Amino acid sequence: MKHWETFVLKYFTHVIFQCQVRKYNYMNVIDISQKNPIVRHYMAEIRDVDKQQYMCQFRRNIYKLGILLAVESSKELDYQHKTIKTPFSKANVDRLIDYPIIYSIIRAGIKLQEGVSVIYEDSLCGFSTCKKDCHGMRRAELYTLCETTNKIVFVCDPIAATGNSIIETVRAIEANGMPSKIIILNIITTPLAINNIQNAIKESTSIYTCAIDDFTKGIRGTMPGLGDVGDLLYGKNK
User: Fold this and answer.
1) Residue 104 buriedness (CB in 10 A; 0-12 / 13-18 / 19+)
2) Cis status of the peptide bond prior to 139, with omega within 30 of 0
3) Which ranges of the chain have pLDDT less than 70?
4) Contact criterion met (CB below 8 Å) for 150 and 176
5) What share of the chain is helix, strand, coil (3-state, %, to 5)?
6) What's residue 26's pLDDT?
7) Shortest CA distance to 120 belongs to which of 142, 146, 90, 84?
8) Rounded to whole angstroms, how far apart are CA atoms 49 and 9?
9) What contacts 168, CB < 8 A, 6 or more positions away?
10) How far apart are CA 89 and CA 120, in angstroms?
11) Helical segments of 35-150, H only
């Protein structure tokens, strides 16, 4: 490829990526795999059907992705400039003002939440179930209620195919206390989920994900997809 052709390709790739960011400018959507090759490695590991049979390895990889998502999303938190004393001198540092509240949608979100909690070890953790009722509508129920008023709240859900579970969980959290910001952490999300969440949640919201798949109805929601994360983590329900 000639030099000018390489330049043009890079330019239009940059423009396309910027357009994708602006498309969701109302709500921040960050695919952390774009700048982190190790994220792409772990995504390849968990998508590979030959690797998925090793449950312990799959759990570790989800856990590691939780850590990486937590580090990337730390940019959303509030920090205070302080001066501390070291053994030899003084240093100007940034300290976290307040730890976020971390909710997971069980059961698939638990291992992701564990990885996130490694970075935010003083955070309170809550849990949400989101099952369909007799009319086929999802309803969220919170366990271990945390005080979320004016707090930054993380919601961990590995796969956001339509985003409905996340939307119902956020509504339940808001009913318990209105957060200052919602940060959604996914392994995979879809354009459909992004649009649904953006239309349903009007508060300050960001989505951090490791991949953006296409939505495909009937096969766990995404393509190329991953499978049922809960089954891969803990085994199939009988």
Assistant:
1) buried
2) no
3) 1-26, 132-137, 218-220, 237-238
4) no
5) 40, 25, 30
6) 57
7) 146
8) 33
9) 130, 138, 139, 140
10) 28
11) 37-47, 49-52, 55-73, 109-119
Tell me what the pLDDT averaged over the chain comes to: 84
Percent of the chain topping pLDDT 70: 84
* DSSP states of 125-157: EEEEEEEE-TTS-EEEEEES----TT-EEEEE-
Contact criterion met (CB below 8 Å) for 154 and 103: yes
Displacement of CA 64 from its chain's centroid (Å): 13
Phi, psi of 105, rounded to the nearest 5 degrees: -95, 110
Tokens of 210: 């490791």
Q: Which residue has the tokens 């969701």?
A: 24
Q: What is Dmax (Cα atoms) for the chain?
A: 66
